[in-house]
Amino acid sequence: MSDNDPYDGPGEADALPLYRKTDLFYLLSHHRKRAVVLTLAAAPWSRVHLRQLAEALTLLEADAEHQTLSTAQVRTVRTNLKRSHLPPLIQAGVIAWDDDQTDVLVPGPAFASALHTLTTAGHSLARSPSDG
Question: Where are the beta strands (DSSP E) in the chain?
Fold first, then answer.
């Protein structure tokens, strides 16, 4: 086990099903990934443009009004989503890129399971102390 591995229980972290990076609970452990699923669920026609998603998350995280957001803030969140949070959700089939439009997200085959997990288990968009 590496020093970067936060699991300190018995056995190896890779042997635990709830610790695998493909596990739904692990995928939804970060507030931005939860926000992606919930925003897409609330979006008209179950489609959301990446720019709109980044703006919504920036507003929520900054607890600000739309007029106070800078383009740099939104760009930073958009970049973080595209590099860190969207790829694992896409790989797990929770979300997908729309085939007809670039930068538009749609539900993937595992979206219903992710949404069900969030709504039945309770969810929060709050950051945990470990979220950077």
Answer: 48-49, 95-97, 104-107
Query: 77-82: long-range contacts at Cβ-Cβ below 8 A with a sequence spacing of 24 or more?
Result: 78/50, 78/51, 78/53, 78/54, 80/32, 81/32, 81/36, 81/50, 81/53, 81/54, 81/57, 82/50
Q: Is the pLDDT of residue 112 over 60?
A: yes
Q: Is 11 helix (H, G, I), strand (E, B) or coil?
A: coil
User: Contact 123/36 with Cβ under 8 angstroms?
Assistant: no
**Looking at residue 120, what is its pLDDT?**
85
| Cβ atoms 85, 33 nearer than 8 A | yes
Which of these CATH numbers, 1.10.10, 1.25.40, 3.30.420, 2.40.128, describes 22-123?
1.10.10
Q: What type of residue is 28?
A: L
Mean pLDDT of the chain: 82
Q: What is the mean pLDDT of residues 66-95?
A: 92
pLDDT at 122 exceeding the cut of 60: yes
Beta strands across the sheet bearing 95-97 = 48-49, 104-107, 95-97
| Total residues found in the chain within this entry | 132
